[in-house]
C-alpha cells in the first residue's frame, strides 16, 4: 500500500476551504492560502507504519510557528497504510509545550508525534488527541 499523495490531500483541502493553496517557500510539506479572508496554513507530514504498529513524525519549531501564525491551521498526516488524519492544529497545539521539545542536530528544535488507531500523542505528554483517520486512495 502506498501513502496518500500530498497533492491529492492538498486538492481535497482546496475544495473544502474554497481556496487555492501554494507551497510555502523552502517548505516541501507546507502550503498556504486565503479562505474567506482568513489565512490558512496546511502541513502534510508523512510516516511509515513502524514495526511497533504506529507511525511517527516530527514538527520543527519553524513549522509550528507557521501553523501558529495562521487563522486556520490544518495538519494532514499521511500514513503509509493509506490513511490520512486531518487535524485542527489549533486544538492539537494545546498539547505542544516547550518543556517536551526535543533538540538534535538534524531537526533542531522539534516535537515528536506518535500516531496510531484514533490517537495522536506528543512525546512527553501523557494526553492523547483523538483523531479518526480517513482512507485515501492515491
Secondary-structure blueprint of this entry?
Elements: H1 6-17, E1 22-23, E2 30-35, E3 38-43, E4 46-47, E5 55-60, H2 61-68, E6 72-79, E7 83-88, H3 89-92, E8 102-104, E9 108-116, E10 119-122, E11 129-130, E12 134-135
Parallel strand pairs: 3-6, 4-6
Antiparallel strand pairs: 1-2, 2-3, 5-9, 6-7, 7-12, 8-9, 9-10, 10-11
Keywords summarizing the entry:
alpha+beta, 41% strand, 5-stranded antiparallel beta sheet, 3 helices, single chain, 138 residues, 17% helix, globular, 7-stranded mixed beta sheet
Shape: globular
- The low-confidence runs, each spanning 5 or more residues with pLDDT under 50, are none
Q: Tally the beta strands.
A: 12
Please provide the ordered H/E string of secondary-structure elements: HEEEEEHEEHEEEEE
- Report mean pLDDT, rounded to a whole number: 93
Tell me the number of helical segments per DSSP (H or I, 4 or more residues long).
3
Strand content: 35-45%
In brief, what are we looking at here?
With 138 residues, this protein is of the alpha+beta class. The chain contains 3 helices and 12 strands; from the N terminus they run αβββββαββαβββββ.
Amino acid at each position: 500500500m502506498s501513502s496518500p499523495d500530498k497533492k491529492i490531500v492538498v486538492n481535497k483541502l482546496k475544495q473544502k476551504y474554497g481556496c487555492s493553496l501554494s507551497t510555502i517557500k523552502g517548505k516541501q510539506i507546507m502550503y498556504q492560502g486565503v479562505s474567506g479572508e482568513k489565512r490558512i496554513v496546511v502541513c502534510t507530514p508523512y510516516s511509515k507504519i513502524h514495526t511497533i504498529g504506529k507511525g511517527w513524525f516530527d514538527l520543527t519549531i519553524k513549522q509550528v510557528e507557521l501553523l501558529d501564525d495562521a487563522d486556520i491551521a490544518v495538519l494532514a498526516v499521511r500514513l503509509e497504510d493509506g490513511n490520512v488524519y486531518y487535524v485542527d492544529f489549533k486544538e492539537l497545539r494545546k498539547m505542544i509545550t516547550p518543556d517536551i521539545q526535543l533538540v538534535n542536530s538534524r531537526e533542531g528544535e522539534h516535537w515528536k508525534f506518535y500516531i496510531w488507531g484514533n490517537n495522536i500523542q506528543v512525546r512527553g505528554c501523557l494526553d492523547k488527541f483523538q483523531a479518526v483517520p480517513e482512507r485515501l486512495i492515491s
